Predict the structure.
Amino acid sequence: MQTPISKFDAISQQTIEIREPVLADGAPMHRIAENSRVLDTNSSYAYLLWCRDFAATSMVAEIDGELAGFVTGYTRPARPHTLFVWQVAVDHPHRGHGLGVRMLDALVESCAAQGVTQLETTISPDNPASVAMFASLARRRLATLTRTPLFTADQFPGGHQPEDLYRIAPLTTQEEWR
């Protein structure tokens, strides 16, 4: 397990810790996803499994001891050098302060140090905030961002938006691109 990233945010006067999730984070992660009203909410069981089986490719943020957000990801079985980011969520009281970006940067830094060379995620066309966050990540990492259609609306039940695949490569550690 990696060392948690803790720092005091002088602007908000809060202590922020970004770390890998543990089982106790599963229920708060489910609550944050459910309360987001924009994410597809997985079962509470899925978040517990995520904390157990995919902790090394996920991050949570605690602010003053309370879970404030999470990023879930996994390495693709057929492409072990590819990190797929499944969800990025920040609890309502903590939005608008760059917490999602901080968690994503910490995750990319950790995974790039372990040999991951590219990131994939899917984003629906009605989510410009996510597009902007991942485009910003690519710029900061001096990487190329590409977008291709992946899932069409008719492949989803219940009127889900289509999902485009965004790929960021090459992923490097901060030490490599500074």
Notes: The radius of gyration is 16 Å. The mean pLDDT is 90. The first strand starts at residue 5 and ends at 9. Strands lie at 5-9, 14-19, 59-63, 66-76, 79-90, 118-123, 144-151, 163-169.
